Amino acid sequence: xxxxxxxxxxxxxxxxxxxxxxxxxxxxxxxxxxxxxxxxxxxxxxxxxxxxxxxxxxxxxxxxxxxxxxxxxxxxxxxxxxxxxxxxxxxxxxxxxxxxxxxxxxxxxxxxxxxxxxxxxxxxxxxxxxxxxxxxxxxxxxxxxxxxxxxxxxxxxxxxxxxxxxxxxxxxxxxxxxxxxxxxxxxxxxxxxxxxxxxxxxxxxxxxxxxxxxxxxxxxxxxxxxxxxxxxxxxxxxxxxxxxxxxxxxxxxxxxxxxxxxxxxxxxxxxxxxxxxxxxxxxxxxxxxxxxxxxxxxxxxxxxxxxxxxxxxxxxxxxxxxxxxxxxxxxxxxxxxxxxx
Length: 341
What we know:
There is one protein chain. This protein is α/β, with parallel strands linked by helices. The chain has helices at about 25-30, 40-50, 65-70, 70-80, 105-115, 120-130, 140-145, 150-190, 190-195, 255-260, 270-275, 275-285, 290-300, 300-315, 335-340; strands at about 20-25, 35, 205, 210-215, 220, 230, 240, 250-255, 290, 320-325, 325-330. Strands 3-4-1-5 form a four-stranded mixed β-sheet. A four-stranded mixed β-sheet has the order 2-6-8-7. A three-stranded antiparallel β-sheet has the order 9-11-10. A hairpin with a 2-residue loop joins strand 10 and strand 11 (about 325-330).
């Protein structure tokens, strides 16, 4: 790969023995914090979409998630994700550490961090680690060699978020926020060690060392690192580990409230596939309606309705008809079939 030869000396999953040892000094322990990671959630939902997998609680990732794969930048990211029976490493640049600060800015800051990854770092993570044992897909290699992989990856994650995650994010985030609040209280009452030992049966903490059972072997020593513990819904009930480098150290653990969701009444199948708002709009389009009519009927902002209609139209589930200055939407035959009409 001309122009992008990077040494393989850094800590990366090179063997399959099953234990990660992360040694943390006192300063690193003192800087441990809790935060939600929207980028990490999006990457895992994209992984379900590209592999045909099903979440153990929420099931199928949805038609909108699969439709998003038609976008070339979404496909670019998807080709770099881990697959069952294949490499477990996913490029860390796709899941930046959530920065301290208001949660409303986290996703935008993470996407900015993805786009700002230096080309040589993107080349290392993608070509020297992710595809260490196999050929790099052609369009991925082209993007890396052109120095645009990071910018396209950020755009792909943004596009996938808009098409497949945004509509259901408020519900997921409420579960994740509740976990953060509960564990913050435990940290204040019982200490950091108690929280680390309670995250997951595969995670142990003793004598300044995190021991994590995983499908590769790795040992790292961190001094003055900022380690983020992030509750996860998409990866539930697995652990998501990213601790090789102190600048990107994130440990994703199963959020407590996700398991409880399995015992709750399930939403209708179409709502799980499309998201509640899109499913409601699709169900209301047996007769042609304008954006304004739908906004009034469903008590949604016209801009929100317009966005959802755009996703449904691109997915082939609704048709758009113009009558002079008025645009009306109605369900297509594919939309009728999805609803069982």
